[in-house]
Design a protein that fits this description.
By secondary structure, the protein is mainly alpha-helical. The protein contains 19 helices and 13 strands. It binds alpha-D-glucopyranose.
C-alpha cells in the first residue's frame, strides 16, 4: 500500500523516465515507457496530444525548456513550403496539406545519426488523419507563453508563420456552410472507427480554443487580413454549439415531438432529426438539473452519446455558457456511477453494443463494449475533469475524482502500473490491451494534484 505522497513521487519518477531526448536535449515524452521486450507499436513515439498533460506538469514545476523544445521540434515537422518536397508522408502518392502537424514523432537512427521521424497518419493503424494535432499545438503554445512569460518564442517569424499556416488550413472554405469543422473518422483522441466522423464535439471544442489562442498569439501585423474572420467564426461556432448541440430534458422533449421534412429558414428542426433516432437510454438518463453537449451533429444525425473530452473542454474554454457548464457538472455528479464509477472517467457513454458495434466499429475487438474507446475509462481524463470542475467552482467534484483514482492506485500499487485505460461498466478492470506506464495517465494525475 502506497501513501499519496509516495504515489505522487513515483508519478514524477515515471514521468521523468518517459522523457524523449534528441541530441541530448529533452523534446517530449513517449506515449508509454514500456520495456523494449513488449511489442511497442507506436507507443515509443511522442504524440502531440499525449504530450499536453506532460507539458502542463513540467510547466508547473518551472521546467519550460522541454516544452519550448517540443514546440520548436513539432514546428519543424509541420508541412510548409520549404519542407514539402522532402516530406516523407505520402499516402498513395498524396501529401498532407500545408500547415498540417503530425500525430506523433519518433527518434530513429539514420546513417549513424539521430533523426526525427514524423507520422502524419501514413503509418498509423487505420491511416487516420490527426486533425487535433495543430489545435493542441496552438493551445499548448499559448499555455507555454502564459506560464513562462516567454514572449519571444511565439514572436519569432517561424512561429508566426506556423500559426498562419494552421489558420489557413483550418479556415479554408470548402463545400461547407456550417461553422463547425467537418472531419474524417478517427481524427483525434479516438483514432479508430467509432462513428465519430463528421462534426465531433471534441474537435469543435479544440477548434474553438485554438482559434482564441491563435488570435491572441499572432502579432497585429500578421493578422490584419484574418482577425475579423476569426472573430466571426468564433462567435458563430459558439452560438451553433450552444444552441444545436445542447441536450437537456427540455431539448429531449422537443426532439421527441419534432416535426420532420421542414423546409425553409424559420423552422424548428433544422437538421431534420427524426424523433425515432432519440435513443431510449437518453430519454431517462438526463436528470432535470443536468445537461450536456451531444457528440456530433449533421444532417439527420445527432449522436446522443456523452463524450467526456468534448464536454469538459467546452467547460474549460467557455464554449459552453455558464449555465450549461453548471449543468454538465450536475450531470457528472448525478450520473457518477455511469460516467466516473471506480476510475475517472468514461471516454464516452454509453458503449455501443451488438449489431451497432459491428456496423459502427467494423467489428473492432479492441473497441468491444465497455472497453478502450467504446465506454472504457481513461485516467488521463482526470486532469480535464479537475480543470473543468475548478473552472466553474465545483471543487467537490474535483476532489471526489482524485480521491477515487488515488484510492485505487495506492491499494493496487504494483498491480495496476499506470494503465492506459480500464474496462467494464464501472471501470473496475485494467484494460484488456492497455499499455502500462502510460505517460498521460501519470501526467494527468500530477496535473490534477497541481491544479488542486
Ligand atoms: C491510442 C489513443 C490515442 C493516443 C495513442 C497514444 O491510440 O487512442 O489518442 O494518442 O494511443 O497514447
Amino acid at each position: 500500500m502506497y501513501t499519496e505522497k509516495e504515489l505522487l513521487s513515483e508519478a514524477w519518477t515515471r514521468l521523468e523516465a518517459s522523457v524523449l531526448k534528441f541530441e541530448n536535449e529533452p523534446i517530449g515524452t513517449v506515449a508509454a515507457a514500456i520495456d523494449k521486450s513488449t511489442q511497442q507499436f507506436n507507443y515509443g513515439h511522442c504524440f502531440i496530444r499525449d504530450f499536453v498533460p506532460s507539458a502542463l506538469a513540467f510547466l508547473t514545476r518551472g521546467q519550460g525548456e522541454i516544452v519550448a523544445n517540443f514546440l520548436r521540434q513539432t514546428l519543424k515537422l509541420q508541412i510548409n513550403d520549404k519542407n514539402i518536397d522532402e516530406v516523407r508522408a505520402h499516402m498513395d502518392g498524396v501529401r498532407p496539406g500545408m500547415g498540417l502537424m503530425p500525430a506523433s514523432f519518433e527518434i530513429v537512427e539514420e546513417e549513424g545519426k539521430q533523426a526525427v521521424r514524423a507520422d502524419f497518419g501514413e503509418r498509423a493503424i487505420g491511416r487516420v488523419t490527426p486533425v487535433d494535432s495543430c489545435l493542441w499545438w496552438l493551445i499548448l503554445l499559448r499555455i507555454y507563453q502564459r506560464a513562462t512569460g516567454d514572449q519571444e518564442l511565439v514572436q519569432e517569424a517561424g512561429f508566426q508563420r506556423g500559426i498562419r499556416l494552421i489558420l489557413n488550413l483550418y479556415m479554408l472554405k470548402q463545400f461547407d456552410m456550417y461553422p463547425t469543422l467537418l472531419v474524417p473518422e478517427g481524427a483525434f483522441m479516438i483514432d479508430r472507427r467509432m462513428g465519430v466522423y463528421e462534426r465531433p464535439l471534441e474537435i469543435q471544442a479544440l477548434f474553438y480554443a485554438a482559434l482564441l489562442a491563435a488570435d491572441e498569439l499572432l502579432l497585429p501585423k500578421n493578422k490584419q487580413d484574418i482577425h475579423t474572420e476569426i472573430e466571426q467564426r468564433l462567435a458563430r461556432l459558439k452560438t451553433h454549439i450552444r444552441e444545436h448541440y445542447w441536450l437537456d430534458l427540455e431539448k429531449v422533449n422537443e426532439i421527441h415531438r419534432y416535426e420532420n421534412e421542414q423546409f425553409g429558414e424559420e423552422i424548428c428542426n433544422k437538421f431534420n432529426i427524426y424523433p425515432e433516432s432519440l435513443e431510449a437510454w437518453a430519454i431517462d438518463w438526463v436528470p432535470k438539473e443536468g445537461g450536456y453537449l451531444a457528440g456530433n451533429l449533421g444532417p439527420g444525425r445527432m449522436d446522443f452519446r456523452f463524450f467526456a473530452i468534448g464536454n469538459l473542454m467546452s467547460v474549460i474554454c467557455s464554449l459552453a455558457d455558464e449555465a450549461q457548464s453548471q449543468k454538465i457538472m450536475n450531470l457528472i455528479g448525478k450520473r457518477w456511477i455511469d460516467l466516473v464509477g471506480n476510475m475517472p472517467m468514461k471516454l464516452c457513454f454509453p458503449a455501443i453494443e451488438d449489431k451497432e458495434w459491428e456496423l459502427i466499429t467494423g467489428c473492432d475487438p479492441k473497441n468491444v463494449s465497455w472497453s478502450y474507446h467504446n465506454g472504457g475509462s481513461w485516467p488521463v481524463l482526470l486532469w480535464f475533469l479537475v480543470a473543468a470542475a475548478l473552472k466553474v467552482g465545483r471543487k467537490s467534484i474535483a476532489e471526489r475524482g482524485i480521491r477515487i483514482a488515488e484510492k485505487r492506485w495506492c491499494e493496487y500499487k504494483d498491480k495496476d502500473r499506470w494503465p492506459e485505460y480500464y474496462d467494464g461498466r464501472k471501470g473496475n478492470l485494467v484494460g484488456k490491451k492497455a499499455m502500462r506506464y502510460q505517460t498521460w495517465t501519470i501526467a494527468a494525475y500530477i496535473v490534477a494534484k497541481d491544479l488542486m
